[in-house]
Specification:
Length: about 350
């Protein structure tokens, strides 16, 4: 029932976002627009997208190194299957990634999940830096009259920035306590869980110990430098992955500014509107970025969003299915991980 409920909620959000994207566009004209695309540019786009996942795997290898040394090739399976699992209700990709990493390499689930939280912290900081750049040098783009679900773009983006900043501070504080003052943190946790049965106290202590192992990399300055470098490369690849599509649609504005604005909007919308496989939320972000802000014709913006979404998730889907078959993974088990989460 939980999975069904989450699926229904996700599909409702996706349907609303797709309606927002498509309601002014003729399906006949949209289908015709796909024939005008220069699909040769999809080849470099796929290469850059795959490069971004290589950088993610290299970064993840460093993050889990205090727990176990794993070759990059051994991380592609949990990485890609985990991203593919975002098609599941509640976008359970992170839980699936942690489960698969532990199952494949014998790393405790809590430790694996902690490494993903640290990874996400670096990603949120990256988004905030890009967001700050847009605010400082391109604040006028947020004056767009675009709204979604009755909320203005400016309000949505501003609230996202504020909540993300709060989340970053909270995560840094929690990780610092976990690494530098684990005993004090454990004392606080024991006080919080004292109403629970005694048998749960040892379980919670064990989970905290495993989780702290996944955060230990933050004590290694050299490793943090490498993680920062790979994070820069990940986001540089994400930004660059849109450029081939600009050429495929022969858009006039191929500036770095345009690419960054599009990246920031997509990053915000897929978090604020958590739809299965980013369907709808991804498309709405592209529409607002290209049409409302950069004044690209609406039909072109909608078509662009559909093709970019299809290529991005197509790469994830193909790689995910390959590793499911290659590693003889059970789809039923992956769904169960989502339900247990």
């Amino acid at each position: 029932m939980k999975s069904v409920r989450n699926l229904i909620i996700g599909l409702v959000i996706a349907a609303g976002a797709l309606y927002y994207t498509l309601h002014n566009v003729s399906m006949k004209n949209l289908a015709a627009s796909f024939k005008t695309v220069d699909y040769v540019y999809i080849v470099p786009a796929v290469f850059i997208i795959m490069l971004s996942y290589l950088f993610r795997a290299l970064r993840w290898r460093i993050l889990i190194s205090p727990m176990k040394q794993v070759d990059v090739s051994g991380l592609f399976s949990p990485l890609m299957v985990g991203y593919m699992a975002n098609i599941l209700p509640a976008r359970a990709g992170e839980l699936v990634r942690a489960y698969l990493l532990g199952n494949k390499h014998g790393i405790p689930f809590s430790g694996a999940f902690a490494s993903i939280i640290v990874e996400r912290l670096f990603d949120i900081v990256s988004i905030l830096l890009l967001f700050t750049w847009v605010f400082m040098f391109n604040a006028e783009v947020l004056s767009s009259e675009a709204t979604i679900s009755g909320v203005s773009l400016q309000t949505l983006v501003t609230r996202f920035g504020q909540l993300s900043a709060i989340l970053v501070v909270a995560l840094i504080g929690f990780i610092y306590m976990m690494v530098a003052h684990k005993k004090k943190l454990m004392t606080i946790i024991r006080w919080v869980i004292r109403p629970l049965p005694v048998k749960w106290h040892d379980k919670v202590a064990h989970l905290v110990e495993e989780f702290s192992q996944g955060c230990m990399i933050t004590k290694d300055l050299a490793a943090l430098f490498k993680i920062t470098l790979y994070t820069v490369l990940v986001w540089a690849a994400i930004i660059a992955s849109y450029l081939p599509f600009y050429f495929a649609y022969d858009l006039d504005n191929k500036s770095l500014e345009s690419l960054i604005i599009l990246t920031v909007l997509v990053s915000i919308f897929i978090v604020v509107l958590p739809t299965p496989a980013w369907l709808g939320s991804f498309n709405a972000a592209i529409l607002i970025g290209l049409h409302d802000i950069m004044k690209v014709p609406e039909l072109t913006a909608v078509s662009f969003g559909m093709v970019v979404w299809a290529v991005n998730f197509g790469v994830i889907l193909l790689c995910g299915f390959y590793f499911i078959l290659h590693d003889h993974l059970s789809v039923k088990t992956l769904v169960q991980v989502e339900e247990d989460g």
